[in-house]
Amino acid sequence: MSKIHVLSKSVADRIAAGEVVERPASIVKELIENAIDAGATAISVEIREGGLQIIRVGDNGSGMTRDDAALAVERFATSKITSERDLQTVRTLGFRGEALPSIAAVSQFEMLTRAKDEIQGTRVRVVDGKTDIEIAGAPIGTLVTARELFYNVPARKKFLKAPLRETELVTKTVVNYALAYPQIGFRLLVDGKESLVAPASTPLERIGAVWSREAASEMIAVEYDSVDLRVRGFISKPSFARASREWIHFYANGRPIRSGLLVVMLERPYAGRIGRADKFPLSFVGAPPPNRHPLAVIRIELDPQFVDVNVHPRKAEVRFFQERAIYGAVQQAVEHALRDFPITQIAEGAGEWPFANTPEATFPALREAPGEYRAGTWRALGQIHNTYLLAQTPDGFVIVDQHAAQEQIFFERLTGERERDGEIERGSENPVTLFPREAELVNAHLEEYRALGVEIEPFGANTFRVNALPDFVKLSARHVLDTLVVEHDKYRALEGDALRDKLASKLACVSALKAGDALTLEQQQQLLNELLEIYSPATCPHGRPTFVYVTLEELERRFLRR
Question: Between 235 and which of 59, 296, 346, 390 could a Cys-Cys bridge form, CB atoms 3.0 to 4.6 Å apart?
Answer without folding.
Answer: 296
